[in-house]
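can u do me a favor
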């Protein structure tokens, strides 16, 4: 298995978190039901809650993550 250096893993994790932030802050796709959209948003918020609880962060701006989950 090809492991990333710690700083590369943090950058990858942060990028994934920002993908969740961007999804949460976007509009519901036209072909998605309200129920599907609510479930998608909640899954992404849970992802952010899990990631915010990790003690991996160094100088990353966690404000967008916290705002996306309402903290």
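np, heres the sequence
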């Amino acid at each position: 298995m090809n492991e990333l250096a710690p700083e590369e893993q943090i950058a990858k994790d942060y990028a994934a978190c920002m993908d969740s932030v961007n999804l949460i802050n976007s509009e519901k796709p036209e072909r998605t039901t309200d129920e599907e959209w609510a479930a998608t948003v909640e899954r992404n918020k849970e992802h952010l809650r899990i990631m915010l609880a990790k003690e991996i962060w160094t100088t990353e701006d966690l404000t967008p993550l916290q705002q996306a989950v309402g903290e």
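The mean pLDDT is 95. hope that helps!!
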